[in-house]
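Lab meeting minutes (informal)
Scribe: AK
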Amino acid sequence: MAEVKNSGWASLAHIAVDDIVLSIDGQPVPDTATAGAILKADAERKSRHIVLHLRRGVHTLFAEMEPVWDAPSK
């Protein structure tokens, strides 16, 4: 992650700057374009949970986010 805002969703999920995203919802993330495509699909489905597999230094961990999607505009 390049930036984590205080009190933002990533911060609440305990995601830190310099974490490396290995997968999102079990799908490998080799680059930022793939991450964007997976997250865009999650947004279109309005997924209730998004699970990130992260590498932090020599450790790996999972972080689960429960996004609140915006209501469709009228």
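Next up, CB showed the second protein from the same session:
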Amino acid sequence: MSSVLNELTDDWRRVLAVVAHPDDLEYGASGAIARWAAKGADVGYVLATCGEAGIDSLRPDIASRVRRDEQLAAAAVVGVTSVEFLDHPDGQIADALRLRRDVAAAIRRHQPEVLVTLTERHRIGAQLNSPDHRMVGTAVLDAVADAANRWIFPELGKDGLGPWAGVRAVCLFASPCPTHFVDITDQLQAAVASLACHRAYLAALGSDPAEVLVPAARETGQQVGVGAAVSVEVVWFGRPPA
């Protein structure tokens, strides 16, 4: 991680988080979301899949219901009540154009200033990034222009979803090339509680939410001079704030 990270502004009014799976946001981004929601931002979640392939011991039809419920509970902990599922196949997101259209539609519907997703890069630390994460991250970046252009996916306009060109930034969490940090000192416990809502998934992994989140947040916080923080790569659309 770069030793020089700028603190990210948090004057957002509307935020839309678009990720591949239930639990994706709870591995760091939910702390930032809790901060923004507490300051009055309207935050919505859009999940490309239901995570139905994520628990080996559960059939996909059962896992889908369990993981939907866990995501709804996790979102509520950090002040998010709008959660949508696009029902793309977990682990097999392949229709890039359909995904872009779905994300563009969500952007037009929610009209966010800021989008949140996971990095589209091939690696997260030393690990290979999930194909689903890469597909969704790329779709989110591309859909900013799609949502603003009435001639791309014109059928959305016929459905009453006019162009939205108000996206200021995309925040890519879990990026190996962060540019900013968000101070989540006051939101760290909410972030842990949000991740803990994914009980069935964590049980399958054998993971403790506090052990996963707290050391990393404290370490990042120490690097930037706060109690706890999460790092993020920010891609600006238009001029970045001074």
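CB comment: The CA atoms of residues 101 and 153 lie 7 Å apart.
No objections, moving on.
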